[in-house]
Design a protein that fits this description.
- The protein folds into three domains: 65 residues; 189 residues, no CATH class; 111 residues.
- With 425 residues, the chain is mainly β.
- The chain is 14% helix and 43% strand.
- The protein has three helices and 28 strands.
- The strands form seven sheets. It has a four-stranded antiparallel β-sheet with strand order 1-28-27-26, with no helix packed on it. Strands 2-3-4-5 form a four-stranded antiparallel β-sheet, with no helix packed on it. A four-stranded antiparallel β-sheet has the order 6-7-8-9, with no helix packed on it.
């Protein structure tokens, strides 16, 4: 009887200790991490992710996926004619607005496509914009007048081969104006922002262009120190300047590195930094973080477990590296979109060949503010069950060694004297 009581007391203390380890994980929601894949046997990849007003997420690529705050699928939609969606924003009525390109509507070649849905992803209206040739959208912003602006490139209009094309619409998607920008060569816009003065800035290749609210150029800058560079993401920074991210290959180098450029409000470069290893590393998405630094996401072949892995790089406000993380398996895994979420952590969206149903699948990754994977939300329950399972197994083993099985000898009275003194009522 004495050993039974001692074992029960020990069990009680062990369970309390287990909960002391588990409860802080639940209490610190910003440290919860999870990842989810979405897809079938065909290749799918997410070009963008946003956090919606209900705390969930929306991912867009060849189709549209809505999840709750833990990445559990709520609904998904496909739309006839969608080649791909490059961007999505939440509308003021709780619905969604998507931009991409389509070959099924408009002219014979690909056209810009703007689609408005309700909060369940059902189409309310859609518009195409384009000419007789190839026109492809890469970025969408909701403007301060409740309209929309799209940017990409066009072969239908302009001065050269591919030219930048900027299209402005009203709240119902009706075109208000459009402008082309470019020379005799190829010019692209991969990222667009509405600026604090209600103008626009767009970036692509090695160029940053600032316009007024009607699309008229105010200035443009190129950043061509590298032999080959590609700007893929742009933000207007809290100091009124700009930050650009992409990838660059310097003279004599064989591989690309992550590239971060900081400018003043007139586009003059203040500094630039590269991050990478001995193989290709490409950044596709950039945010300015709440602490005044920057976080970049993309792909790395220099680090990680497989071929290409997702790479997340955090810097301070001067571009100095603070930490970096990689995520992935044995095959190719990439991040094309990055956001800072309401709990201070990050959400990354892209594609994975290493996980999921087959081929490439949408991949949504949630991290804490340090980019560190932590326990998912079900971990406390699982750890408790494991602890109880171990306790029961040990207890059964103890019961198997009772006097009935003659596996031990009763301690003598002398050895029990001190203990029995404390156990008396």
């Amino acid at each position: 009887m004495y050993y039974k009581k001692r074992f029960l007391v020990s069990t009680f203390l062990f369970v309390l200790f287990s909960f002391s380890l588990i409860i802080p994980v639940e209490a610190q929601a910003s440290w919860v991490m999870w990842s989810q894949t979405y897809g079938g046997t065909e290749n799918n990849y997410a070009n963008c992710v946003i956090q919606t007003s209900d705390g969930g997420f929306v991912l867009a690529g060849k189709w549209l996926v809505k999840t709750d705050e833990l990445g559990n699928l709520e609904w998904n939609r496909t739309y006839d004619g969608a080649d791909r969606f490059s961007s999505v924003v939440e509308a003021s009525d709780g619905g969604l607005v998507l931009a991409g390109d389509t070959r099924s509507y408009g002219a014979e070649s690909a056209d810009f496509w703007l689609v408005k849905t309700d909060e369940s992803g059902n189409i309310e209206w859609n518009h195409t914009y384009g000419g007789a040739d190839f026109d492809r959208d890469f970025s969408l912003v909701k403007t301060s007048d409740e309209g929309y602006a799209l940017a990409g490139y066009t072969l239908s209009f302009g001065a050269g081969e591919y030219d930048v094309w900027l299209v402005k619409t009203d709240a119902s998607g009706n075109m208000e104006w459009n402008q082309t920008y470019g020379g005799a060569g190829n010019d692209y816009a991969f990222s667009l922002v509405e600026t604090s003065d209600r103008g626009f800035a767009f970036a692509g290749s090695d160029r940053l262009v600032k316009t007024d609210g009607s699309g008229n150029i105010e200035w443009n800058k190129t950043y061509g120190e590298a032999v080959s560079n590609n700007i893929r993401s742009l933000v207007e920074t809290s100091d009124g300047g700009y930050a650009l991210a992409g990838y660059a290959r310097t003279l004599g180098a064989e591989n690309y590195d992550f590239w971060l450029v900081k400018t003043d409000g007139s586009g003059n470069m203040k500094w630039n930094k590269t991050y990478g290893g001995s193989r290709h590393d490409r950044a596709y998405s950039l945010i300015e973080t709440s602490d005044g630094g920057y976080t970049l996401a993309g792909e790395t072949r220099s680090y990680g477990a497989g071929n290409y892995d997702v790479w997340l790089v955090k810097t301070d406000g001067s571009g100095n590296l603070e930490w970096n993380r990689n995520y992935g398996g044995e095959l190719n895994d990439r991040a094309y979109s990055l956001i800072e979420v309401s709990d201070g952590g990050y959400a990354l969206a892209g594609e994975t060949d290493s996980f999921g149903a087959g081929g490439s699948d949408f991949w949504l990754i949630k991290t804490n503010e340090q980019g560190v994977p932590e326990f998912p939300s079900w971990a406390p329950m699982l750890l408790t069950l494991l602890a109880l399972t171990v306790i029961l197994a040990v207890y059964r083993k103890k019961l198997a060694k009772t006097p009935n099985n003659q596996s031990y000898q009763e301690p003598n009275n002398t050895s029990l004297l001190k203990n029995s003194f404390f156990l008396k009522n």
